[in-house]
Specification:
- By secondary structure, this protein is an alpha/beta fold.
- It has two domains: 212 residues, Rossmann fold; 99 residues, Rossmann fold (3-Layer(aba) Sandwich).
- The protein is built from twelve helices and 13 strands.
- Bound molecules: pyridoxal-5'-phosphate (PLP) and zinc ion.
- The site of pyridoxal-5'-phosphate has 21 residues, from helix 3, helix 8 and helix 12.
Length: 398
C-alpha cells in the first residue's frame, strides 16, 4: 500500500499514519496503492491472498490456517427466468469460514492488528462481523471482544461464543453497540475492527470483485449489494476500481444498493442527490440517520458508518438505490433456496428482491449480466425465515 486518502476531503496520509480517520475532517480513509507498479498477473496464494499485490498485508501462510474467499459464482437460470432475467449469477459467500462475506474483511483487519502488535481485537456488529472476528481471532491466536445489540440472532451469538470471544450484548441498537465499542477501544487500546471506521475492512471485501471478474471472465453489467453501513458496497466498488486502475479491465459495472424500506438511509441520500441534479461536494454531503427497523438484522442501521463511500460508489458507478420491503426480502429467501439451492439470511436475500424490482421497472434489461452478492448463510437466522413446519407423521403410518 501507498498510504491513505480521505473519502470526504481527499487529504492524503502516508502509509505509517497510525490513526483510522482523517485528522482534518474526521472522514473515513481509503487505502491507496501505486497501481503503475502492479504486475500484469495475480500471484500464487490461498483464497484472497492470491491478490496480495492489491492488499495492504502479505500472505500470512500458516499464521491464518483457514481459507478465506475463493467462493463459488453460480449461474442461476431457473431463478433468473422467473423474473425475466436471462443472466443472473450468485456470488455465494455463505461458504466462508464463519458463513458470511465478513471473513474477507476480518482477515485483512486482523492481520493489520497482529502487525501492530495488538493482542485484543474489538468489533461492533449486528452479528456477522462479530462472529467473523471471533472466528479469525481464534484461528490466529488473538483475543476478540464483540459488541452486539442484545437482539442479535442466537446463531450469530452462538458462533461468537463458541469461537471463544468475549461477547457483550448491549442493551440498545447496533448504533449504541458501535459507540460503546469506540469508547472502550479508546480507553483500553484495543484494535477496533468496526466496519467503516477501520479502513482495512474495505480492502478485504473488495476481493469478492476480483473473484467475480476472474470467474465470469468479464465485467458484469451490475453487482447488487445488500447494504446497511455501506462498507461491503464501497468495498465491491473499490475492487472494480482497483482492477481498472491496474489495467486489468477497461470498463466498470454499475453497483446497485439494496436496502430494506425500514433501514434505507443510503438509498435516500442517493435519491436526494440525484433529484437535486447538482454534482455533490463530498465534503459537505450529509447522510441523514433513520430509526432502523427491519427483519434483515444485518442491514438494520440508523447511521451508516461507511455511508459516504457507499453513496459515492453508487453515484459514480451509475447504479441504482433500490428499496425493498421486508415481505419482499422474506419471499426472496424462499425463491433463492427453492429455485437456486442457495439458503440466504434475510439481508443476503435483499439483492434478489432488488433485481426483481429493477426488472419490473425496466431499469435492468433481460440480457444484462447481473451478479447478486449473497453475503450470509440462512442458518444464521432461522427464526426469521417463514418456511412453515414439517409434516408430523407416525413412524408406522403409510
Ligand atoms: C450478511 C450481511 N449482508 C450485508 C451486510 C451489510 O454490510 P454493510 O453494513 O457493510 O453495508 C452485512 C453487515 O453486517 C451482513 O452481515
Ligand atoms: Zn478528510
Amino acid at each position: 500500500m501507498n498510504g491513505y486518502r480521505c473519502l470526504a476531503c481527499n487529504t492524503e496520509q502516508s502509509a505509517d499514519f497510525a490513526v483510522f480517520v482523517c485528522p482534518v475532517c474526521g472522514g473515513n480513509l481509503d487505502i491507496t496503492y501505486d497501481y503503475a507498479a502492479i504486475e500484469s498477473d495475480f500471484g500464487e496464494g490461498e483464497g484472497i491472498f492470491r491478490y496480495q499485490t492489491l492488499l495492504p498485508c502479505s500472505d500470512p501462510g500458516a499464521a491464518l490456517p483457514l481459507t478465506i474467499g475463493n467462493t463459488p459464482l453460480h449461474p442461476v437460470r431457473r431463478l433468473g427466468a422467473s423474473a425475466g432475467l436471462d443472466n443472473i449469477w450468485l456470488k455465494d459467500e455463505t461458504g466462508n469460514p464463519s458463513s458470511s462475506i465478513k471473513d474477507r474483511a476480518s482477515a485483512v483487519a486482523l492481520l493489520r492488528a497482529a502487525e501492530t502488535g495488538a493482542d485484543t481485537v474489538a468489533v461492533a456488529s449486528t452479528g456477522n462481523a462479530g462472529s467473523s472476528t471471533a472466528c479469525l481471532a481464534a484461528a490466529m491466536g488473538l483475543h476478540a471482544v464483540v459488541f452486539v445489540p442484545e437482539t442479535a440472532p442466537a446463531a450469530k451469538l452462538a458462533q461468537s461464543l463458541a469461537y471463544g470471544a468475549r461477547v457483550l450484548a448491549v442493551r440498545g441498537s447496533y448504533d449504541d453497540a458501535y459507540d460503546l465499542c469506540l469508547r472502550e477501544c479508546d480507553r483500553r487500546g484495543w484494535f477496533n475492527r468496526s466496519t467503516g471506521f477501520n479502513p482495512f475492512t474495505r480492502e478485504g471485501k473488495k476481493t469478492a470483485s476480483f473473484e467475480i471478474w476472474e470467474q465470469l471472465g468479464q465485467v458484469p453489467d451490475r453487482v447488487i449489494v445488500p447494504t446497511g453501513d455501506g462498507n461491503i458496497l464501497s468495498g465491491i466498488w473499490k475492487g472494480w476500481r482497483d482492477l481498472h486502475a491496474a489495467g486489468f479491465v477497461d470498463r466498470l459495472p454499475k453497483i446497485d444498493c439494496a436496502q430494506s424500506a425500514g433501514s434505507a438511509a443510503i438509498c435516500r441520500a442517493i435519491a436526494s442527490i440525484r433529484e437535486s441534479g447538482i454534482d455533490p461536494d463530498w465534503r459537505s454531503v450529509d447522510i441523514e440517520s433513520v430509526a432502523a427497523s427491519t427483519v434483515a438484522d444485518s442491514i438494520s442501521v440508523d447511521q451508516p458508518r461507511d455511508g459516504l463511500a457507499a453513496v459515492r460508489a453508487v453515484i459514480e458507478s451509475g447504479g441504482e438505490p433500490v428499496v425493498v420491503s421486508d415481505d419482499e426480502i422474506l419471499a426472496s429467501i424462499g425463491e433463492l433456496a427453492s429455485k437456486a439451492g442457495v439458503f440466504a439470511e434475510p439481508a443476503a436475500a435483499a439483492p434478489w428482491a432488488a433485481a426483481k424490482q429493477l426488472a419490473a421497472n425496466g431499469q435492468a434489461g433481460a440480457d444484462e449480466t447481473i451478479v447478486l452478492l449473497i453475503t450470509g448463510n440462512g442458518l444464521k437466522d432461522v427464526p426469521a425465515v417463514p418456511v412453515g413446519k414439517p409434516e408430523l407423521v407416525d413412524a408406522n403410518s403409510d
